[in-house]
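hey all, quick one before standup. I had two proteins in the batch that finished overnight and I want to keep them in one place so we stop losing track of which output belongs to which input. First protein below, input sequence then structure tokens straight from the run.
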Amino acid sequence: MTPPRLDVALVDRGLARSRTHARRIIEEGRARVDGRPADKPALAVADTAELTVVDVPDGVEYASRAAHKLAGTLDDLGLDVTGLRCLDAGASTGGFTDVLLRRGAARVVAVDIGHDQLAPHVARDPRVDVHDGTSIRGLDPAAIGGTVDLTVADLSFISLRLVVGDLARATRLGGRLLVMVKPQFEVGRCRLGRGGVVRDDAARRDAVLGVARAAGQTGLALLGAGRSALPGQDGNIEFFLSLRHEGAPCVVGDEAYDMIERALQEPRGVPGAPFDEHGKVHGS
């Protein structure tokens, strides 16, 4: 009898929710076969092999791969979300919501244009207010119970420049925003490389600067910029912008340009890397 593939074996032994989830675990380098790292989903696994998954937060897998991106950024910034009411814009399976809940957020409003996508352990958390079938574009804060203290955003197939004003209106004055810039949805088709990957540094720079400028026009001050802890699933380099709602237009000046340039040039976590940010969520 042919031994099962590693991704299938992880599901069969209850270590992954699905083959997609299993492949994510393997791609993240967290699967172990008899104590040794395994990086190929198709690896044949004997029935007697010991399978483990490492780096499982709180003993329960995050709702999505994207959760690790937000978790890494919160760590880099030293942001404390304890007791905050948050908005997860583009919640999807709830990776960002999952991180916020585990870090002590009082409530998370999970907004997504899709339906019934939240991972079960996120959807059943009493601190989550689910708003399925809801577009961020044109969102009325009253529809989600008023403005929030912190907004996080992971949106696809739309430019952040088109919705950053809506995100600002949903966030209280003095509140904070962490938005993930995906250059592949900012630069236009003519600047996309093969496979939908942005490989040109100038195009990435234009993408991040474009979102920062649009944010400034809506009253959001740029406090920090940095690379995501993980690339997009297709290999695109992605970025986080840390913003504060000032309520009046903010100029993207030399300091902001320098932060963005460092984010473009330096990998996350090296000495002198970006996110040289000013202040934490509380007391902003």
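OK second protein, same deal, sequence then tokens:
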Amino acid sequence: MVEDTYDCLVVGGGPAGLTAAIYLARFRRRVALVDGGKSRAFLIPRSHNHPGYPDGIRGDDLLARMRQQMQQYGVPCLSAQATDAARLPDGRFSVQAGQPIVADHIILATGSRDRVPPLEGIIQHIRNGLVRQCPVCDAYELIDKPVAVIGTQDCAAGEALFLCHYTPQVTLLTLGDDLAVSEDVQSKLDDAGVRIVRERATAWDFRDTGVDIRFGDERLGFAAVYSGLGIVPQNALARDLGVALAEDGRILTDPHQHTSVEKVFAAGDVVTGLNQIAVAMAQGEIAATRVHSLLRLREGRCLADSL
């Protein structure tokens, strides 16, 4: 049951948010979690680079395990989209998530949303591993296989160059749009042997073992296609609270995951830095521990110089 007020409200039910909630519960803090159910991790077909799972683990399985662990500590979880956040006159915060929730501190673990190509059934193709979104996560599984990257900006070119370390068969697909990169970036693509296909695709065939794409009379086959269209940080609540943002819209934090606003913390893919499960979990741990330390200081159970 969601109560009137908490020591800390965690917004976001991905790896960062769930980790923060688990830590705060084990710190014996009154914590609640709001989860809109749109974690990027849910779409991961199988992660092979998350430590502790030598055979890999599906994203939805990992989230289910973490949620079960959190629930064992009795953390209330509200399945709703948090829509508004504001500071109250007494210094606490109110977050609207179908109902008002009041807390002394907030941890924003709202994540980012991937821009994906407008293809029918795109979510299922991502869950099947045919359309991918993170070469850091899974390029190893594509060693020496033909892969494609969709996009026209530097982020797509960067992913194509990253993949060249794993396979010489990398193709950049602009799907009929102009390639908007500098001459220097174009030169790097050329030197790396990245093929650039500028034509629009006329047909897509998603199979169990790969993706065939037709460009007029030519048909190209790939083991997987990466969406190099960038991400959209889910920063609406941060904006409500006046939190400082980086140029790309992600949240700026200090080494304790503290934002520019007092008692507001952030962790996970909405924060600047490397978007990885283990990183998000570590940031959730750091944020939760800092909240606990600040509360201990207020309660007279912490030395100021130990913060």
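Flagging for whoever picks this up: DSSP finds eight helices and 17 strands in the chain. The CA atoms of residues 19 and 27 lie 12 Å apart.
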